[in-house]
Amino acid sequence: MSAGVVLYDWTPDVRCYAVRLGLSLMNMTYETRAADMDLPMGQRPAGLRPGERPPVLVAGSVRLSRPGAIMQFVARQPAVARAWLDPAHEWMILDWLDFGATALDTMAAARDIAFGTTLPVLPPMGALVAALRRMEDHMTARAMEGHDWFASPAPSIADVVLFVVFALTVDLGVERDTCPALRRWARRMRGLPGFMVMPGVPDYA
Amino acid sequence: MKRWQPVSVLSDIRRGEVAGVRIDGREVVLWREDTPTPALHAWEDRCPHRGMRLSFGFVRDDALGCLYHGWQFGGGARCRLIPAHPQVRVPASIHVHAYSVREHAGLAWVSMDGAEDFPVGGTGPDNVQPVRTLHVNASVGALRHVTGIAPDAGIAWHGPVGLAVHEPVAGQGMLHVVRVADAEEVPLPALSRWAERLRDAVESGAVTDRIMNELAMGELA
Ligand code: FES
């Protein structure tokens, strides 16, 4: 199966980073087609359809572009450890996965504004700060119950997407000391086998 | 006047952990040794090599290593290893600025102006456990008022619950919550959610009396 998986990837995109991180942590082999969206249409890889934007994961007849769907697809492959979408905690994992994917969209938009313009315009951070706060309160409660991860006893695909949200908000000026519970959780994420960084974003909590 | 500020609950800075905190707009790295008797340190969050943040670094036994080029600093805040030149004896002049730090009532207390006389005793019950630290988008003045912290006190006790605050930067506050360890009648998860409600009320300018009263009554909603 994995022999046929292709990822259209655009390195600086936050959703692409989430997908790369998930594929790497779940130890999935795949082929990368780099798609630089800053280049004109004609210079993008042939397999990418008009209007499509990375990440796009293609596996046989399956063609996915939403990070949450891609994570689920990969986590359900027979060769992947069940813990990434632990059946005993599936609903909670999917709930936080959706929460994270939505925050990721907000973040992608904020980064477009922050880095796509030379004007000193502050991106609209309210929604992201509110999302981080909900994550912080949740992980504080989890820690009190003796849990290390968002939704299940082991790291899940929800942790992957939420980690990207947390890790990249530092780029947008969110101070780390405002989220002590998330900082401790993020350090654990960094210690997982297969962890990889986002180019251009320092590897720290 | 030299003063001590509560800057973090101790549960956020366990053995072998590093955490950057801001105190009055200044960046400080808290770190705890990874040794059988792990001492806590509070240093200026700035590596003497190229000025990068030491709070991005990592603890190795009784030293803090900088993430960028691996310079290692021992408990005395002196640099003791430069990996690019392992043979070189590092001059004593290469060191990090260290602040006074104490552990008391479940909290890390830092003095930015070098106070040594920590006022132990008379500040509350023994056997206190940390609960959590929360960021509050409100001034410390407002927070101290709401939580009932006297002008010269570092912490306010409401029955078995202790509340303390410090200012990371002007206009913002960090609220530290601790509890007497055996006060099981105030469950930690309920206390944590109570603190969230207090934070949300303070931020939105809502009335906080009712929330504070829950603490006085010992009945957290
Ligand atoms: S900046 Fe710290 S070792 Fe170079």
Automatic annotation (TrEMBL), chain A:
InterPro entries documented for this protein: Glutathione-S-Trfase_C_sf, Glutathione_S-Trfase_N, Thioredoxin-like_sf
Alphabetized UniProt keyword annotations: Transferase
> What PROSITE patterns does UniProt report for this protein, alphabetically?
GST_NTER
Q: Which GO terms describe its molecular function?
A: transferase activity
Coiled-coil annotated residue ranges, if any: none
All copies of domain GST N-terminal, residue ranges: 3-82
UniProt-recorded name of the protein: Glutathione S-transferase
Could you tell me which species this protein originates from? Answer: Komagataeibacter diospyri
- Lineage, broadest ranks: Bacteria, Pseudomonadati, Pseudomonadota, Alphaproteobacteria, Acetobacterales
From TrEMBL, chain B:
GO molecular-function annotation terms?
2 iron, 2 sulfur cluster binding; iron ion binding; methyltransferase activity; oxidoreductase activity
The source's domain of life comes to Bacteria
Q: Which UniProt keywords apply?
A: 2Fe-2S, Iron, Iron-sulfur, Metal-binding, Methyltransferase, Oxidoreductase, Transferase
Task: Report domain Rieske positions.
Answer: 5-110
**Which InterPro entries does this one have?**
ARHD_Rieske_2Fe_2S, Cholesterol_7-desaturase, Rieske_2Fe-2S, Rieske_2Fe-2S_sf
Segment forming the signal sequence: none
Q: Which Pfam families match?
A: Rieske
- Would you kindly state one Gene Ontology biological process term found in this protein's UniProt entry? methylation
Identify this protein by name: Vanillate O-demethylase oxygenase
